Amino acid sequence: MKLSIIVPVFNEEKTILQILEKLDNAGIPVQYEIIVVDDGSTDTTRTKLKNIKGAKVILHKKNQGKGAAVKTGIKNAKGDYILIQDADLEYNPNQIKDLLKPILAKTAKVVYGTRLNRTPHLRKEEAKHFFIIHYFGNRFLSLVTSFLYGQWLTDMETCYKLFPKIALNSIKLNAKGFEFEPEITSKLLKRGYKIKEVSIVATPRGYDEGKKLNTVRDGTKALWYLIKYRFTD
Q1: Bigger pLDDT: 214 or 181?
Q2: For the chain, percent helix, then strand, then coil, each to nearest 5?
Q3: How many CB atoms lie within 10 A of CB 187?
Q4: In the chain, how many domains are there?
Q5: Range of the domain at 196
Q6: Looking at residues 199-215, what average pLDDT do you find?
Q7: How far apart, in Å, are the Cα atoms of 158 and each of 47, 60, 91, 106?
Q8: Which pTM value belongs to this model?
Q9: Residues 6+ apart with CB under 8 A from 217
């Protein structure tokens, strides 16, 4: 088994080298490749990527969105499985081993890392207005997904999605932005793939630290695409 780890990047000069180092030190128990897709960064991210070794770096001439970057990575992937890894340090690569366990044990073909199989951290980050809205927004979208597609999920919006590349042979991905999350999930479920969720821990960052997802705007889009792809392809 070979794993293709796709790292979509846009203006992550503070974290890009750290996340790549963490990936190299994560003790991933299978052969893997790292594909970094810089989606038109305008800070020093591209300069930092010039001397990267051990990873394939692909540059978009202009910013197109996370979904577009992921699709570019998929097109260039040589692995049997695809994993998405954000570059912002919210997700710790040490947890990739846990995502791979059901695959290697042949008990699942698609694995998501769930951050939300829990109650809100009201004494931690979710004591803040922004994070509690984000928590309940994600739980609501996951509930809608479960209702529309007939499989219980707790974290549809998770970055950590691990799926076989062969599954994409019958799937056309249209998303250019964050709507990639509901699109890939809905299309995998419609094609009969069961999604195994594995609990993970994430360290969320705020907008002052560079977070790009807008809870209301992107959450509304996600809801629309969940409904749209339930009835269209």
Answers
A1: 181
A2: 40, 20, 40
A3: 20
A4: 1
A5: 2-231
A6: 72
A7: 29, 24, 10, 22
A8: 0.92
A9: none
